[in-house]
Every structure is written in structure tokens, then in C-alpha cells.
Design the sequence.
């Protein structure tokens, strides 16, 4: 909990005018008015993005060569290996390419990377799998941009390769037939935010046209929505249109296995899905098999068309999800204990490590601890003399930059500013811990000298009906990276009751004389502090799907007692 935060103030005259022009609640218009680059016409178009307004793909480097080679493979009946990374973007990209190529009559061998058998990317183990598949063409999904050595060996074997990826591009040319990556310096495609699943969709549509096939690529948008949100790609531009329409496709329940997983995440209720449903319900389930072992069940459940088999796979994944959660709870408890017993509680950045911790769980444990402790956290699974870990941090912290400062103490690292993985030798752990602490302290000190994230974006206007505010907030979806959901300033909220629910704080509130629920994640120990008090909240307004009807819930972000 931070100190008392500032009141954003009443809506401006410009916001009132915008509310009238677009027929919006004053609260949401005040939020949109904070984006002055958008006029009313642009905002209306942004609120209702159309697939017809997507960036034309003709300037995407190597798209033509990709479509030409895949068309040749389909017509000649060649076997095609499709290899995806083990995360949601890699899995959904692999599913898109596999489904489309099979629909067009190709023989496809889908493969996925494994944390425990070769590791990330197109590894030596992956190369061996492709060779043994006897495929004449390889398509990599969400990996390959830096795998020069293995791709060169593949070329020596006479196997063509197409790389579909969105990660950073090294200067050395890639030894492949085609390389689709908007971050290539020579790629003129102006929108750089696509995840690999979005690129795969462009390939699918180009292939459909080249082969003159009847296939509705819009049915693949559910996969694009999952991969884009799970990979924390910016929900702007083309991604906004892809994800908004993709969430609608998820809601139709057309993909049997995915629908079974989605219903497990919503208590059996089929409803309109939002990006946070993907981030907190669907993506963790699809990632669970790969965190604990073989990721293939996640791919299979997306591709399966037999209802009985699809539900069997969904049940298997749900069991793995429950196992993952149990492991996560244990690791979080152990890690928090180590913060206290290790004397790390005052460290600006934390490095927590133990022998026997599960390497597939350290990333989500690091994320949970970073959220709870509001500090950069690295969690390392030690196995003998080596360790593999994951780094997470509060929003705005630049993880990759901080790890770069620690490079001499590491065996290797990779990732981006929001998340990263690393390897180290166990005997260098104390040295790395101090280097990480120093790097975090330096970056946090610089951040304290600049404007920090506000605790509330906009005040709830007293003239607004909550039902209209909720409806307008839903028009802002999909929300996430690049398009945050507004946190709303709510003064003088009366707390009628407070209780702990599985470690979370469940609140019964009175807002403007109306009873409303509140949920404050991971603050279940604060029941006594909240009971009977008046409090100013920074919170998100959302529908309470469990109560149903017009019920509204506050998802609390911050608070200050009056």
C-alpha cells in the first residue's frame, strides 16, 4: 500500500464534450481525453476496430517467398515439419500453421520445443527431431531468429527452412529460405507489434489466396488472441483488431478443446471473454503441460476435433494445472521464507535460489513475488552446480538492462525488458546476488527521480450510471500492454464487511449508497484494518460474473484510509 494518492480531479470541458459527441459516460470520456492525439473520429474508429483496416501485408519481408514455398509443398505433397516454441505464442502459431496446411491437404508433422529436452528455440535436439521426421520443409514458429548454427546444418541436409518469429534480430544473415520477422532492418512492414501468431495468420491468408482455397481465416483469430495476449504483445494497432475479434471467436465455443479449457476457467459459464481471461485463465492452462513436462497436450487440445478426445485432453491439462498451482504455492512460501531468513528483506532486487526447485515454475513464482513485494525478483532452480532462473519485476522496470549489468556473473541470459531467463554456475550465486542488487538499486534510484506510475487515472463522475460506465469500459477492451485498463479514483467508500478468501481480501462496500463487492488480491491479512472504515480506492470496475446479472465488482489496486 502506498501513501495517499492524488485525486485526478473532475472531468475537463473537453472530456464533457467528448462524452456528448461519442455518447460515452463522463468517466470513460475523461480517460480517453488523456490521449490528445486522438480526435473524436479516430477514437470512434479505435473503439470499434475493423479487420478491413489492418495494415496491408505486402511490405512484410519474405512473405511472398514463404507463400510460394508453402504452396509448392502443398501441391507436391511434401511433408512439412512445423516447430513451435513451448510458450503460448509458439503453441498457437504452430497450431495455426498446422491447421491451415492440413486443411489445404499437406502432410504436417507438428513439433514443440521442451524446457526439459533441448530447451528454448530450435535447439540441437529440435534439429534431430526435424531430421528424423523426414520432412522436406521446416517452418519454425516463435523461434529461429538466433538459431543460425542449427539452421545451417538443416540446410546442409537439403531441408528448406522458413522462420516465423518476432524476437530481436542478430546482424548475421539467417541461413534460411525465408525469414518473416518485422524487426528485420530491411522489413518495410510498418507495424512492429505482431506476435508470431499474428505473423502466422498473415501467412495463412496469403497461402489461402495463392492456392485459391475456401478457408475462413477468421476462425483462427481465437488462437491469435491467445498468443498475442499471453506474449504481452502491445494491444495497439493490428493487434487490437486481432485480439478484439479473436475474443469474440473464443466466446462462440467453436474450438472444442479450447472451449472446454475456457469453461473450466469461468466455472462452467460461457460469456463474453476479455484479455484478462486469456492472461489469467486460458494461457496458464495451456502453459501448464510445458512447465511440468511435455507441452504437446496443449497443442493437441487446440487442434483436436473429436469431442471425446478434446475433453480428455482438457481434463489432462486441468490436472496438470492443479499440480502446477500446488507446486507454485509451495515455492512461493519457501521463497518468502528465504527473504526473511536470508536477510534479503531490505534488498532492492532479490535473487532467491534452492536446490530442487522446479525449473518450469520459477517464472510464475518470480512474477508472483515481484507483484507481492513490488521489487525486481529472480527465482533460480538449482540442479547440482548449475542453475536456471527467471526474472520478473513491477511495471516499468527494465529487466534486460539490469541483467546486462550483471553479465560477468552469468553463464547466459535472454529475454526482454518485461521478463527474462538466465543460467548461472551455483558457486557464483552470491556474486550475482550482489550484482543484481546493485543494478536494481541504480535503476530504481533513477526511476525515483522521474514521474512514476499514477495510482489512479480518472475520477468516477457522480453523474454516471455504473452500468453505462461498465459498458463503456468494455468498449476499451482488449486491455493490457500498450492499452492499460483505467484505474478509477473512488473517494469515501464505506467498508461494510471484510473477509479473507484464499489469501485474498474480499470486501463488501457501499459506493454512493449502492452495495458493491470488492476484491483485493493477496491482501487477505488486512481484514481487521478495513472492517468498518472509510477508504479511498484506486480500482478497476468490472462485472461480477459469479454473482451475475448487473452485479459490479471493484478490483482494488491501491487504497488510503480516511
Sequence:
Amino acid at each position: 500500500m502506498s501513501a495517499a494518492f492524488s485525486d485526478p480531479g473532475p472531468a475537463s470541458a473537453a472530456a464533457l464534450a467528448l462524452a456528448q459527441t461519442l455518447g460515452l459516460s463522463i468517466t470513460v470520456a475523461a480517460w480517453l481525453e488523456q490521449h490528445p492525439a486522438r480526435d473524436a473520429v479516430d477514437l470512434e474508429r479505435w473503439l470499434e476496430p475493423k479487420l478491413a483496416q489492418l495494415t496491408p501485408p505486402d511490405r512484410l519481408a519474405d512473405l511472398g517467398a514463404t507463400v510460394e514455398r508453402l504452396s509448392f509443398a502443398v501441391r507436391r505433397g511434401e511433408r512439412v515439419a512445423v516447430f513451435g516454441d513451448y510458450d503460448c505464442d509458439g503453441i498457437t502459431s504452430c497450431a495455426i500453421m498446422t491447421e491451415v496446411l492440413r486443411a489445404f491437404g499437406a502432410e504436417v508433422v507438428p513439433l514443440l520445443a521442451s524446457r526439459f529436452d533441448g530447451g528454448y528455440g530450435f535447439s540441437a535436439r529440435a534439429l534431430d527431431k526435424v531430421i528424423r521426421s523426414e520432412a522436406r520443409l521446416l517452418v519454425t514458429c516463435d523461434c529461429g531468429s538466433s538459431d543460425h548454427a542449427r539452421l545451417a546444418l538443416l540446410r546442409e541436409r537439403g531441408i528448406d527452412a522458413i522462420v516465423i518469429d518476432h524476437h530481436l534480430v542478430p546482424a548475421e544473415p539467417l541461413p534460411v529460405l525465408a525469414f518473416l520477422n518485422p524487426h528485420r532492418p530491411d522489413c518495410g512492414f510498418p507495424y512492429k507489434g505482431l506476435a508470431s501468431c499474428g505473423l502466422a495468420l498473415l501467412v495463412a491468408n496469403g497461402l489461402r489466396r495463392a492456392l485459391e482455397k475456401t478457408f475462413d481465416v477468421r476462425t483462427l483469430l481465437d488462437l491469435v488472441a491467445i498468443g498475442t495476449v499471453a506474449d504481452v504483445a502491445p494491444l495497439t494497432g493490428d493487434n487490437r483488431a486481432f485480439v478484439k475479434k479473436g475474443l469474440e471467436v473464443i466466446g462462440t465455443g467453436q474450438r472444442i478443446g479450447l472451449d472446454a479449457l475456457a469453461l473450466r476457467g469461468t466455472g462452467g459459464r460461457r460469456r463474453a471473454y476479455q484479455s484478462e481471461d486469456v492472461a489469467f485463465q486460458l494461457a496458464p492452462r495451456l502453459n501448464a503441460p510445458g512447465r511440468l513436462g511435455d507441452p504437446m497436450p496443449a497443442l493437441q487440445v487446440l487442434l483436436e476435433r473429436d469431442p471425446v478426445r478434446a475433453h480428455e485432453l482438457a481434463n489432462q491439462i486441468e490436472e496438470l494445472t492443479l499440480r502446477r498451482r500446488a507446486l507454485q504455492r509451495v515455492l512461493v512460501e519457501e521463497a518468502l521464507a528465504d527473504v526473511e531468513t536470508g536477510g534479503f528483506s531490505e534488498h532492492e532486487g532479490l535473487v532467491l535460489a534452492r536446490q530442487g526447485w522446479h525449473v518450469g515454475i520459477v517464472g510464475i513464482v518470480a512474477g508472483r513475488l515481484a507483484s507481492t513485494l513490488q521489487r525486481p525478483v529472480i527465482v533460480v532452480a538449482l540442479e547440482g552446480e548449475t542453475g536456471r532462473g527467471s526474472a520478473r519485476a513491477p511495471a516499468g522496470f527494465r529487466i534486460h538492462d539490469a541483467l546486462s549489468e550483471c553479465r560477468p556473473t552469468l553463464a547466459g541470459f535472454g529475454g526482454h525488458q518485461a521478463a527474462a531467463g538466465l543460467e548461472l554456475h551455483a558457486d557464483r550465486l552470491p556474486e550475482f546476488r550482489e550484482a543484481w542488487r546493485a543494478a536494481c538499486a541504480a535503476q530504481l534510484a533513477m526511476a525515483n527521480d522521474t514521474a512514476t506510475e499514477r495510482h489512479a487515472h480518472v475520477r468516477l463522475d457522480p453523474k454516471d450510471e455504473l452500468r453505462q460506465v461498465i459498458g463503456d469500459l468494455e468498449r476499451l477492451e482488449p486491455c493490457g500492454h500498450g492499452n492499460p485498463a483505467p484505474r478509477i479514483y473512488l473517494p469515501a467508500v464505506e467498508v461494510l464487511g471484510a473477509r479473507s478468501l484464499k489469501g485474498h481480501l474480499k470486501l463488501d462496500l457501499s459506493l454512493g449508497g449502492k452495495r458493491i463487492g470488492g476484491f483485493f488480491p493477496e491482501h487477505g491479512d488486512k481484514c481487521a484494518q478495513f472492517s468498518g472504515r472509510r477508504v479511498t480506492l484506486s480500482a478497476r470496475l468490472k462485472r461480477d460474473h459469479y454473482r451475475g446479472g448487473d452485479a459490479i465488482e471493484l478490483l482494488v489496486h491501491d487504497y488510503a484510509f480516511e
